Automatic annotation (TrEMBL):
Residues 394-416 are annotated as: Disordered. Keywords: Signal. It comes from the Bacteria. InterPro entries: AztD-like, Quino_amine_DH_bsu, WD40/YVTN_repeat-like_dom_sf. It comes from Biostraticola tofi. This is YVTN family beta-propeller protein. Residues 1-24 form the signal peptide.
Length: 416
């Protein structure tokens, strides 16, 4: 049986429940950080609540990390090695309608790997995963549940020709990028709905320079040089609708896109020292925010929905109020990290877990911990090597016990 990894507060609570003669409950949290090294084929796992290292996994190459919506799995894309490894986070939620149960186990490196030429964009939607391979003419689609069960079922969807693109999975369809017919090394020129046999459905949507994808609520967005493509599904095949950039915007475009949690919006880059907020439901959908220096990384807060965070090259973390469309607080965390040099040089990355913001500081082998409420640095986590990509998994809820033999390991929970 796998060892249960509970924080000290949870363990103490369960000991108390064992001797409790009457019903009791208490709010608990379980959060983990998965941190990939910039140069080494290693992913370290930390308890986000106390900073303790829980595990270390050796991979085939340096990895870019993506977590699933459920948080049950973390995917480590190793482009140089042609491998996508899968890690079971050890934190799983089970929906029971009026509540959810949580299971907390060891994080484990699974045997299940996706192999292919130049693995690239990862996209997951409602438990279905689409893994893109830049060097192949098909994308691989599979279910998260199949990965956890070590089921080898994979659907390959033809994408015409190898190119740097993306696939978005839907129930019985996928939206895939269309390669540039003149030069496959250039960015895609549009998006196409196909069934799982790769057959085209409906008309293609133009999207010159397609790069960047995200989900917020029930909308998937793809970014183009001319605006966004908004994809929605209501009953049948996905429907693509263009959202052109406003004529009032200066010249520019978005190539990295993140979707808001709890509120429906998107945030993207728009030039080196600006970001753009997109509300797809408003007539005036776009708002620009000027940054003090060039942008390094940005992330949304999945818990405090109106906030996003941007790290800039002067070593500062900025809190963005999405409703106001403005920077509301700034905090210096590190020495400057210039954006001159190679795009993949080791630079800070942001993740949010519970009431904390975590910012990797790869050149100083540590992770800065910021209280999300006070917006002040409260701690550091020392990490061997160069901590780079980081994702957070976890949730909070209640542990129940009634003194009558009920399983106190069941928690009424919410996942973030």
């Amino acid at each position: 049986m796998k060892k249960r990894l509970l924080s000290a507060s949870i363990s103490a609570l369960l000991m108390g429940l064992a001797g409790a003669p009457s019903w009791a409950d208490e709010e608990v949290s379980a959060w983990r950080l998965f941190v990939a090294d910039h140069d080494k084929p290693v992913v370290n796992v930390f308890d986000a609540l106390d900073g303790d290292r829980l595990a270390s996994f050796k991979l085939h190459g340096p990895a870019n990390l993506n977590r699933s919506e459920s948080g049950a799995t973390v995917f480590a894309t190793q482009g140089s090695a042609g491998v996508v490894s899968t890690i079971a986070s050890g934190i799983a939620f089970h929906d029971h309608g009026d509540h959810a149960d949580i299971d907390i186990d060891d994080a484990t490196l699974l045997k299940r790997e996706l192999l292919g030429n130049q693995p690239g964009h990862f996209f997951e939607r409602q438990g279905k995963i689409a893994q893109w391979f830049d060097g192949e003419d098909s994308a691989k689609i599979l279910a998260e549940s199949a990965v956890l069960a070590d089921n080898k079922d994979v659907t390959k969807v033809n994408v015409v020709a190898p190119h740097h693109g993306v696939a978005v999975p839907f129930d019985n369809y996928a939206v895939v990028s269309i390669p540039n017919p003149d030069d496959g090394s250039k960015r895609p020129i549009g998006a196409r709905v196909v069934d799982l046999d790769g057959k085209k459905v409906g008309d293609d949507a133009l999207c010159p320079g397609l790069h960047g994808s995200a989900t917020s609520g029930d909308i998937v967005a793809l970014s183009c040089e001319t605006g966004l493509l908004l994809i929605n599904q209501k009953g049948g095949a996905p429907v693509i609708k263009p959202l052109p950039y406003a004529k009032s915007l200066p010249a520019g475009s978005t190539s990295t896109l993140i979707g808001g949690k709890g509120m429906q919006y998107f945030i993207g880059n728009y030039g080196p020292d600006r970001i753009i907020l997109v509300d797809p439901t408003e007539a005036d959908s776009f708002r620009l925010i000027q940054l003090p220096t060039r942008r390094v990384h940005f992330a949304v807060d999945p818990i405090r929905s109106k906030f996003a965070y941007v790290f800039t090259e002067d070593g500062k973390l900025h809190q963005i109020d999405v409703l106001k469309g403005a920077i509301t607080q700034s905090l210096r965390l590190t020495d400057p990290y210039s954006m001159d040099g190679h795009w993949n040089d080791p630079r800070p990355r942001i993740a949010v877990a519970d009431n904390k913001i975590f910012v990797t500081d790869p050149l100083n082998s540590k992770i800065a911990v910021v209280d999300a409420v006070s917006f002040k640095k409260t701690a550091e986590i020392n990490v061997d090597g160069q901590p780079f990509n980081i994702v957070a998994v976890g949730g909070s809820g209640k542990v129940h016990g009634d003194g009558h033999g009920h399983d106190a390991h069941h928690h009424e929970s919410k996942v973030q």
